[in-house]
Amino acid sequence: MKFDYEVLIVGGGPAGLSAALSLGRMSRTALVCDDSRPRNAPSSHLNNFPTRDGIHPAEWRRLAKKDLEKYKTIEFFDGSVLSVEKSSSGFVAKLSSETFARFRKVILAYGVEDKPLSVPGFKELWGKTIFHCPYCHGFEIRGSRLGLISNSEMTFHMLPMVNDLASDLILFTNGKAEFGEEQKDLLKRNRIELIEEKISGFIYEGEQLKAVSLENGKVKERQAVFFQPTLPFSLKSPIGETLGCEKNQFGFYKVNERGATSVEGVFAGGDNVSPAHSVLLAAASGAMAGVGTVLSLLGEQFAKN
């Protein structure tokens, strides 16, 4: 098979751009496909990234793409990858331009799809005063009256972090709590109010949360809220599943230390392989997937000589 590129990168966020940089540094040819649906689009800043703390997400992506300009082996496609099929020696991808391209390897870097609460105010406040990550947004709202919306095995992983940021904290399980009396007792000892009533909406002015309203008619004043999605996570594309990539109980692709999935020739990096979601960690994971792909390509070439 004649290949158009060595590598297909599905996703042009932090993971995909970092993977492209790893490939470019080793003069590998790659096509980065980006359908312009960045997860952090609603946010006005990203944090916890050395030298870029507080930068606008769109500006970070612009700078990352600018870094790639000198690597002539890296090209971009503004659109979606509709499907990827494995062939005897590589992969064939159908793009949203209705064209087909052939690749030796694939890197899945499309991240996860956030599933908002279908109540008034959530979408309007997402990334403004409703957040997913204390490391990304916690410093700016420290000392506030906070809420955590969570009801899973991950609840007590995030709870200590949010509690430390808050002047007082309410845990909203948005339905009957799925944890036991020992954990409820731990909440009481830490003076964290537990509310199992369903959330009916969010009261806000502009981008500022004022209160959380409940289906029983009660209103709880809050200044900001952290939201943990229902497990398992939903990924932005079904391509990996179609190819047969195994996932874990959280909905993430199973990968080794070099980003290789369970399918030969398919690598993954970013938010779709780990619950630790931030731009810095996604970039690092993407870079490693790029490294793993380079090693695979060059190892195969070396063995043929």
From TrEMBL:
<feature type="domain" description="FAD/NAD(P)-binding">
    <location>
        <begin position="5"/>
        <end position="139"/>
    </location>
</feature>
<dbReference type="InterPro" id="IPR036188">
    <property type="entry name" value="FAD/NAD-bd_sf"/>
</dbReference>
<keyword id="KW-0560">Oxidoreductase</keyword>
<dbReference type="Pfam" id="PF07992">
    <property type="entry name" value="Pyr_redox_2"/>
</dbReference>
<protein>
    <submittedName>
        <fullName>Alkyl hydroperoxide reductase</fullName>
    </submittedName>
</protein>
<dbReference type="InterPro" id="IPR050097">
    <property type="entry name" value="Ferredoxin-NADP_redctase_2"/>
</dbReference>
<dbReference type="InterPro" id="IPR023753">
    <property type="entry name" value="FAD/NAD-binding_dom"/>
</dbReference>
<keyword id="KW-0285">Flavoprotein</keyword>
<dbReference type="GO" id="GO:0016491">
    <property type="term" value="F:oxidoreductase activity"/>
</dbReference>
